[in-house]
Amino acid sequence: MIDSEIPRDHPRYASLVTRHRIEAGVERGITSKQGLIAQGRGEAFDYLLGERTLPSADAAARAAAAHLLSANRPVISVNGNVAALVPEETIALAGVVGADLEVNLFNRTEERMEAIADHLHAHGATEIKGLTGDGEIPGLAHARGTVDADGIESADVVVVPLEDGDRAEALAAMGKTEIVIDLNPGSRSPRTADVPIIDNVLRAVPNMTAHARELADASPAELQAIRETFDPEATLAAAERAIREGEFADEE
Ligand code: ATP
């Protein structure tokens, strides 16, 4: 089945597209089997959040765009789920904010690293980092901490969608400004992030790009104000409230 065969008016269209892309990702050797499990967990939270972008998540995407536009060395980390779900959208975001793309896997195998890099090239990416693996995130076992020295290791702002909690904490300990996209507001990664975006990567990545386009001519002072007024705790609390109280909880 291809995306276009899923009826657009199906009430669970986005969820069916997501499942299908992840399944195709596993078949192509891009997404790991653990990635399938992560997807299942994400889908449950998306259902509880009403499969929509909360106003608080939209504000977080805007703050993320402001951080990326202000960064000296922004890097967007790409794992097997992100590559399967939003390859073009991630490349577009990197282009708009001038970020590098780095393949970064929790379960690193050379085969999968290359399959993802090829997949991104096929979707129009020119330069992909991550394959050199000459840098490290201190405090993590070798394969889990391997990154590029001129990529994530030396980045000042990193976007880590669907990141594992340990690695999110280790990256924060390196002093990086961390932007995490994750549907579970209780997960360690978004709780560690400077900017947690509690939203589906399918919606969050294009939304960050739209905000970045809109802020492209903003002054450094305007970007600073957006960064400084963003409150990560309030974002997490709004998502938790939305899950507990249902549909309109984040809209007062
Ligand atoms: P942690 O280690 O951070 O405490 P975890 O063990 O739940 O949390 P993982 O299993 O490593 O984290 O990663 C899966 C995470 O990715 C889950 O929190 C899940 O909600 C999230 N996730 C899965 N699919 C998506 C998606 N499409 N968009 C956003 N988040 C997603």
TrEMBL record:
Metabolic or biological pathway, per its Swiss-Prot or TrEMBL entry: Cofactor biosynthesis; coenzyme A biosynthesis
Swiss-Prot/TrEMBL keywords: ATP-binding, Coenzyme A biosynthesis, Ligase, Nucleotide-binding
E.C. code: 6.3.2.36
Amino-acid positions noted as binding ATP in the UniProt annotation, renumbered to this chain: 19, 41, 182-184, 188-189, 200-201
Gene3D superfamilies linked to this entry: Phosphopantoate/pantothenate synthetase
Molecular-function GO terms, alphabetical: acid-amino acid ligase activity; ATP binding
A biological process term (GO) from this entry: coenzyme A biosynthetic process
Plastid among keywords: no
InterPro entries reported in the protein's UniProt record: PPS/PS (IPR002855), PPS/PS_sf (IPR038138)
Catalysed conversion reaction: (R)-4-phosphopantoate + beta-alanine + ATP = (R)-4'-phosphopantothenate + AMP + diphosphate + H(+)
ATP-binding among keywords: yes
Family: Belongs to the archaeal phosphopantothenate synthetase family.
Subunit structure comment from the entry: Homodimer.
Function noted in UniProt: Catalyzes the condensation of (R)-4-phosphopantoate and beta-alanine to 4'-phosphopantothenate in the CoA biosynthesis pathway.
Descriptive protein name: 4-phosphopantoate--beta-alanine ligase
